[in-house]
Write a structure and sequence with these properties.
71 residues; alpha+beta; two-stranded antiparallel sheet; elongated
Length: 71
């Protein structure tokens, strides 16, 4: 990746996350033609949130709404 092949601005992120009984290693690479549209750290954050979406304490599984307590 030289900035000319492929053409554009390169940005990368490498990370590792774990929670409860799940682990995730990931790498994200983005190449934007002229302007920064999406940075790799943002893309990686969204991937981690998606991967751990059902294991966040107090959060309902994806696609289900939380019930109202005390009503």
């Amino acid at each position: 990746l030289t900035g000319t092949d492929p053409a554009g601005k390169c940005d990368w992120f490498v990370g590792y996350a774990e929670g409860r009984n799940r682990r995730l290693a990931l790498a994200a690479l983005t190449i934007n033609k002229q302007l920064w549209r999406v940075k790799s750290a943002y893309l990686a954050r969204r991937a981690v949130e998606f991967f751990f979406r059902d294991s966040v304490e107090g959060r309902p599984p994806a696609g289900k709404k939380a019930g109202r307590k005390g009503i």
